[in-house]
Write a structure and sequence with these properties.
By secondary structure, the chain is of the alpha+beta class. Helix content is 38%, strand content 11%. The protein has 27 helices and 30 strands. The longest helix is centred in the N-terminal third of the chain and has 26 residues, at 47-72. The chain starts with 17 loop residues before the first helix and ends with a helix. Residues 7-39, 508-537, 558-572, 803-918 and 924-933 have low confidence and may be disordered. Bound molecules: 1-deoxymannojirimycin. Residues 1-2, 150, 295, 352, 404-406, 462, 492-493 line the site of 1-deoxymannojirimycin (DMJ).
Length: 933
């Protein structure tokens, strides 16, 4: 997410019509006026230090951009671990994530205006020439309309905006003749067929060459799109219309926004996450400010700023009120159900919502912005990065982090609003963490798991479009930038559009007639801004005083209930509702409460207990609602326990020159051999075993003696390989998958099972790498011969000296998604297991190598159920807090010891699977609706 107005520019012609414009103009003044102010509380940062940090950002950008240009261009993205370009179709598909890739040199286009912001004008000139020379927008490839709009159309328009600015200055870009704009227009026309629906909402995907629906197009059958996908077009499309005079783009984008507005849920004024583009029905009725909706809200407010159209601000404010009423639970922002906005839809937050404090700054609502930002910062301090999702009690829910810029963006805007040097320190931490944990020799690699520090072979284009812009601007003084950033608005991808567009060609969009440039008479506009001190008290310690009470909100957090406590729960004398974590199946009082809530308890033959709720059997609608909440909590609890019983992935870190620990590979553990979570780590040089499959006595014991042996998967049991390399004197082993192209990006990791016999004789640690990760080590051997690795449960501090310092012990909150996320009123859900650990069901995991006997035995699924009342730390809402962060690790180890058949499923969820999980969540709520509570 990006934020408006670097830039909103109080000097921009914001029409002063009623209270709406006052709010935006107020925010504008924050951005303009506070840059040179600092407040007491945090120590001010010297100009030298700011410059040093700014230079560091420049160096980091060079490292990212330089490696992209050298090793990946003209491909869309850099793969920083394998140091090559990501070409769609040549790599295993990552699902929806790949829809951003259109074989149009995405990263180059997305980086264009960053080059100018970072004062790299020569490089910009060169980059523009390359775009004009090399980029083809007519490829037979199906791309996301949303991503192509924000990254490519936005990138071209941002590039054009700054190209004409430079040209006007008279030094650079003198040859430029609107070529980027012509490309933008060409692309705009390519996207238009997507809008050919009765609703006017665009199809989510389009074939750049063949459009929609034609047989060759391979797209056009989709029925749903996300709200943000349909509602994040207006800035780019309106800019395109106003730059070119072709009105159609702005009209289409307006029509889509009008439709979404009409479809808002009228009683809550919220919108759902996905909508049917033909019928306009909400498909997913959960509602938050993060994934799937985020930039819809952002664009309403920014459309008002850029286009000066009051109706956008009215809509934004209506939604904002609803967000603050239902979703905002400071410092948290929790998804709710659009029809039942007092019911939380989930117990976790996603990383995309980190843009929201920035948007609140633009709106002028600073307090909740400070609060949410502070909460997010504490999560970051704990995990070095913001995990893709984290729970309300701040545990990792999805552990990956694709170097998202939203938190940096909000940090920048809060600094602009408050002038508090605290936010400079926050930015410094972001820089340090990026260099320490994400920097690899060939760029910056996304984190696959923030807990282990392992990497993904991925550097998204938004990292260059957004992250470096916001970080650079954070430390820059006015004179460090060659143009006035206040004259521009940031799109969601941080592309810059000039605010003068607000008065250009304005009429064409409304009248759909002329293609002439029309200067508006601006006598109606008030060019002054209100005094922001009314909203932002004249207190230098204001921001600090808001942060202070939240100082330990993450570390000292009590786990929160799944559903917010309803107002009714506070009615005097009423007992608080029964919480799932307190429930005991043997307590008669609890059974009575269950009955009142319409929940029945069924004892299964195998000793487990099923809970089923029939809301109509509840004593009252309030009890029925309590019952729903109870069921949802129980499912969460059950799913959490499953996660806690599963082993987290391990890390293989290359520590020798030139990697120095900077490349961390996600590895699967073994159910036998040295347990790395207990014994910290094993470090050694690697050597390939002979035979490579390790299935017989090694013929090269002298080569593997005292080393970590590399063995290929297949042909015999994992344990047999381990014994053979151990007998040859190896101190550890890495099994590399024999399925070419397999990767933990696309395949679920698993544990290597024993051979069904006693494996106590195996003392060395064994880890498993998929083929792609394994080939990074094999390539390193080819290139550098001596390659040293560290096998551990979590990446260790890196850097030239690779200090052996220990990091705090890893959490065990696995990100594995339970198959039992959905709750159904009439559907039985296995929840409570009376026999606890005795009950475990064996399942063979999907073996990608059928001829392979490695996994023939002993792999179990995560289907073991357990009794929440026995294993969950008792925690009362108002009682003492238990630090859950340390708890699961111990719990897991105990369970793992007592049950060697523990396994874990998918460790990393690509975005499409995340969306699939969310779909499961929402199905549950659809069921709730049907039950008409
Ligand atoms: C960016 O592409 C944009 O900010 C978008 O709106 C959502 N998030 C990504 C970066 O995380």
């Amino acid at each position: 997410m990006s934020e408006a107005g670097g830039g909103l520019g109080c000097g921009s012609p914001v029409p002063q019509r009623g209270p709406w414009s006052l709010v935006a103009a107020t925010a504008a003044l924050y951005l303009v006026s506070a840059t040179s102010v600092w407040t007491a509380g945090a120590t001010p940062m010297s100009r030298e230090e700011k410059q040093k940090l700014g230079n560091q950002v420049l160096e980091m950008f060079d490292h990212a951009y330089g490696n992209y240009m050298e090793h990946a261009y003209p491909a869309d993205e850099l793969m920083p671990l394998t140091c090559r370009g990501r070409v769609r179709g040549q790599e295993p598909s990552r699902g929806d994530v790949d829809d951003a890739l259109g074989k149009f040199s995405l990263t180059l286009i997305d980086s264009l205006d960053t080059l100018v912001v970072l004062n790299k004008t020569k490089e910009f000139e060169d980059a523009v020439r390359k775009v004009l020379r090399d980029v083809n927008l007519d490829n037979d490839v199906v791309v996301s309309v949303f991503e192509t709009n924000i990254r490519v159309l936005g990138g071209l328009l941002g590039g054009h905006s700054l190209a004409i600015m430079l040209k006007e200055k008279g030094e650079y870009m003198q040859w430029y003749n609107d070529e980027l704009l012509q490309m933008a227009k060409q692309l705009g026309y390519k996207l238009l067929p997507a809008f050919n629906t009765t609703s006017g909402l665009p199809y989510p995907r389009i074939n750049l060459k063949f459009g929609i629906r034609k047989p060759e197009a391979r797209t056009g059958t989709e029925t749903d799109t996300c709200t943000a996908c349909a509602g994040t077009l207006i800035l780019e499309f309106a800019a395109l219309s106003r730059f070119t005079g072709a009105t159609i783009f702005e009209e289409y984008a307006r029509k889509a926004l009008d439709f979404l507005w009409e479809k808002r849920q009228r009683s809550s004024n919220l919108v759902g996450v996905t909508i049917n583009i033909h019928t306009g029905d909400w498909v997913r009725k959960d509602s938050g400010v993060g994934a799937g909706i985020d930039s819809y809200y952002e664009y309403l407010l920014k459309a008002y700023v850029l286009l000066g159209d009051d109706s956008f601000l009215e809509r934004f404010n209506t939604h904002y009120d609803a967000i603050m009423r239902y979703i905002s639970q400071p410092p948290l922002l929790l998804d709710v159900h659009i029809h039942k906005p007092m019911l939380n839809a989930r117990t976790w937050m996603d990383a995309l919502l980190a843009f929201f404090p920035g948007l609140q700054v633009l709106k002028g609502d600073i307090r909740p912005a400070i609060e949410t930002h502070e909460m997010l910062y504490q999560v970051i301090k704990k995990h070095n990065f913001l995990p893709e999702a984290f729970t309300t009690d701040f545990r990792v829910h999805w552990a990956q982090h694709p170097l998202r810029p939203e938190f940096a963006e909000s940090t920048y805007f809060l600094y602009k609003a408050t002038g508090d040097p605290y936010y400079l320190e926050v930015g410094k931490t972001l820089i340090e963490n990026l260099n320490k944990y994400a920097r690899v020799p060939c760029g910056f690699a996304a984190m696959k798991d923030v807990r282990t520090g392992s990497h993904e072979d991925r550097m998204d284009s938004f990292f260059l479009a957004e992250m470096f812009k916001y970080l650079y601007l954070l430390f820059a003084d006015k004179e460090d930038i060659i143009f006035d950033i206040e004259d521009y608005i940031f799109t969601t991808e941080a592309h810059l559009l000039p605010l003068w567009l607000s008065t250009t060609n304005q009429r064409i969009s409304k009248k759909n007639s002329t293609s002439e440039y029309t200067e508006l008479d601006d006598s109606n506009f008030d060019w002054t801004c209100p005094n922001t001190q009314i909203l932002f008290p004249n207190d230098p310690l204001y921001a600090q005083s808001i942060r202070e009470p939240l100082k330990n909100v993450v570390d000292k957090s009590c786990p929160r209930g799944v559903i917010r406590v309803r107002e009714e729960s506070f009615r005097s004398g009423a007992k608080p509702p029964l919480r799932a974590r307190d429930f005991m199946a043997t307590n008669p009082e609890h059974l009575e409460i269950l009955k009142k809530m319409g929940v029945s308890l069924i004892h299964l033959k195998d000793g487990r207990v099923q809970l089923v709720q029939h809301a109509i059997q509840a004593a009252s609608s309030i009890d029925a609602e309590d019952g729903l909440r109870f069921m949802q909590e129980m499912i969460e609890l059950s799913s959490q326990q499953q996660k806690e019983q599963q082993l987290p992935p391990r890390a293989v870190q290359i520590v020798s020159h030139p990697f120095f620990g900077r490349v961390v590979l996600t590895a699967g553990p073994a159910q036998f051999g040295l347990d790395l979570s207990k014994h910290k780590e094993t470090r050694g040089f690697v050597a390939s075993s002979k035979p490579y499959n390790g299935c017989s006595e090694l013929t090269n014991p002298e080569a593997v003696m005292g080393k970590i042996a590399l063995i290929q998967r297949g042909q015999c049991m994992f344990a047999e390989k381990a014994r053979n390399i151990q007998n040859a004197g190896a101190i550890g082993g890495i099994v590399i998958d024999d399925n070419e192209g397999s990767s933990s990006d696309t395949a679920p990791l698993f544990q290597m099972a024993g051979d069904g016999k006693d494996t106590d004789d195996i003392k060395i640690p064994m880890l498993f790498l998929f083929s792609k990760e394994g080939s990074i080590i094999l390539d390193a051997i080819r290139e550098y011969e001596e390659v040293e690795v560290l096998l551990s449960d979590k990446a260790k501090d890196r850097g030239p000296e690779m200090e052996n310092e220990e990091q705090p012990s890893s959490e065990n909150d696995s990100q594995n998604q339970s198959a039992e996320q959905t709750i159904s009123i009439s559907q039985a859900v296995d929840l409570v297991d009376q026999k606890s650990s005795e009950e475990s069901s064996l399942n063979s995991h999907s073996d990608s190598s059928p001829a392979d006997t490695d996994n023939a035995a002993g792999i179990s699924s995560a289907e073991q159920t357990s009794n929440p009342t026995e294993s969950q730390e008792p925690t009362s809402l108002d009682g003492e807090c238990t630090d859950l962060d340390n708890q699961p690790q111990e719990q897991s180890e105990t369970e793992e010891d007592s049950n060697p058949n523990v396994s874990w499923g998918k460790k990393v969820q690509p975005m499409d699977s995340i969306l699939a999980d969310w779909n499961e969540d929402i199905e549950a709520f659809e069921m709730m609706e049907k039950d008409e509570l």
